[in-house]
Amino acid sequence: MLEKAIVLGCSAIGAGLAMIAGIGPGIGEGYAVGKACEAIGRQPECKGSVTSTMLLGCAVAETTGIYGFIVALILLFVNPFIGKIS
């Protein structure tokens, strides 16, 4: 019983740490959007190419946060470590 409690507690801590991965994409995407706005302000005729490149970059950056979220959900709800307790 104590082993199960330790595994569940450590899984909750691991899920919390995995959610820290959401900070990086938020900062990176905000920086990218700011730079895109600067580029569009300097050369308005490049708006289409700057916007499409920015959206593609933001989509790629967001995958890191999504992976962290999936790992946190697996640790909280599926918890593959419970089956390892003898």
Would you kindly provide a written description of the structure presented here, covering whatever features stand out?
With 86 residues, the protein is mainly α. The protein has one domain: F1FO ATP Synthase (Up-down Bundle). It is built from three helices and no strands. The chain has helices at residues 2-19, 23-42, 47-78. Helix 1 runs antiparallel to helix 3 and helix 2 packs antiparallel against helix 3. The N and C termini lie close together (11 Å).
Q: Measured on Cα atoms, how large is the radius of gyration?
A: 20 Å
Tell me the number of structural domains: 1
CATH superfamily: F1F0 ATP synthase subunit C
* Low-confidence runs: none
Reading the helices and strands in chain order gives HHH
Helix-residue proportion:
over 70%
Instruction: Report the CATH topology name.
Output: F1FO ATP Synthase
Mean pLDDT: 90
Strand content: under 5%
- Helix-strand category: mainly alpha
- Described by the principal axes of the CA atoms, the overall outline is rod-shaped
**Number of DSSP helices?**
3
Main beta-sheet annotation: none
Number of strands: 0
Give the class-level CATH name. Answer: Mainly Alpha
CATH structural architecture: Up-down Bundle
CA-CA gap between termini:
11 Å
